[in-house]
Amino acid sequence: MLVAYGYIYPLQNHKKLVLCNDASLYRFQTPYFWPTQQWVAEDSDYAIYLAKRNIRKKGMLEPYEQAHYNHLHEWLNHKWDFIVMQATEQYKAGRERKKPDRVVFDCQERAYWIVNRPPRRTHSAMDVGPEHLLDPNTEEVTENHLRHVQTQAIMRSKVKSSVSLGALVKYITTYKNHDPFLAPCLPSNPWQTDNDSYWTLNMRRVDLPTKMRVERWSFSLFELLNDLRGRDDFKIFLKKEFSGENLAFWEAAEELKWGTASSMSTKAETIFKTFLAPGAPRWINIDGRTMGLTVKGLDHPHRYVLEAAQTHVFLLMKKDTFFRYLKSPVYKEIQKKALNPEAHNFNPAQLEQNARSRNPGIHPITLWQQEEEEKAKAAAASAPVDVKAMMSKIDRKK
Question: Positive or negative, the Cα torsion across 141, 144, 149, 153?
């Protein structure tokens, strides 16, 4: 970025405003030419610089400078005499300096104009940012390459602006009642009233969720799975349909993605034996290519080794299972039972009383421990029963 914005500049290949990983030499730019000075690079100033350079080089400008020079000569023809006079005066003043100082100033000035008036087919950090600069290891962009890029841009599928705006309006219409900046929190905003009923009603796992929360589940499968209470309800539906292996695999992939590094290999092996191995107890139905890539990646497991298979399973649930869930008695039942809290109307005295009796609430670590205990109980309940062990326990009691 220091090179791209002209704080330091290369001495040899001055047109490449990138830091090369070689023995190239660089010099610090004088603070007068730093972008932080925020003085606009006018066309007239650039024309004076090119005219001065034309005098010094005796008409032997570089091709890109000659093109700029000809364009400015036509554009600023009405005051070209003034530009040439200024250039001549600056050239004479420069001749009075010592040669080393004159060479250094010429390099500094050239580096400044390379940043602000870059050659054709190169990018300037002042216009598009340093992230769009050319790779220092690549050669200069050719005309054929530019034609190929233009062809790709033309062939790329585009969305009409009317379609994009329609999707944006639809999204806003869907979520406007669920945005705390646009709609009030029910029963009240705990940050304003010091009443934590809203947080209590919307805990991660509650027996009866609110109607707003249940409504949000219908927006998308992502919203449903992102809410642990909604995911539990979805599991009940899948269990009745005997198709819970897809969601179980999705959860296992999420646990692998966000789990500890030390348990990664063990979890990956368990997932393979449970869902992917031939004859697995909860084998998932994914296409052969995705299965092959996933099984091959499990030889050297990492956090995102199941990304392709997880995405495939998610899309399967999104296209089929999710819409059947929304029409099922399970979802309709939870809609009927869902709570619809009444809005609180606290007077100033009650608000003051709420502030005095403010409850710190349950600590997040305590909530996490409770969830881990519930997970362990659920895993133990769903685990296969060892009949021999049960019989041996009964014999011991006798």
Answer: positive
Higher-confidence residue of 131 and 31: namely: 31
Residue 293's pLDDT is 87
- The C-alpha atoms of residue 3 and residue 261 are separated, in whole angstroms, by 39
d(CA 5, CA 28): 12
One-letter amino acid at 379 equals: A
DSSP 3-state assignment of 312? helix
Query: Around Cβ 69, how many Cβ atoms within 10 Å?
Result: 19
Residue 119 φ/ψ, nearest 5 degrees = -60, 160
Span 64-105, pLDDT tens digits: 888 888 888 888 888 888 898 998 988 888 888 888 888 888
| Separation between Cα atoms, residue 86 and residue 111, nearest integer Å | 20
Specify the pLDDT at position 223. 94
The answer to whether 281 touches 288, Cβ cutoff 8 Å, is: no
Cα distance between residue 126 and residue 115, in whole Å: 7
Average pLDDT over residues 5-23: 79
For the chain, the farthest-separated pair of C-alpha atoms sits apart, in whole angstroms, at: 116
Any idea what DSSP says for residue 260? -
Cβ proximity of 205 and 374 under 8 Å: yes
Q: How many CA atoms does the CB half-sphere of 292 hold within 13 Å? A: 3
Q: How does strand 8-10 pair with strand 26-28?
A: antiparallel
With 80 as the cut, is the pLDDT of residue 396 above it? no
Cα distance between residue 272 and residue 309, in whole Å: 12
pTM over 0.70? The answer is no
Provide the residue type at 8 as one letter. Answer: I
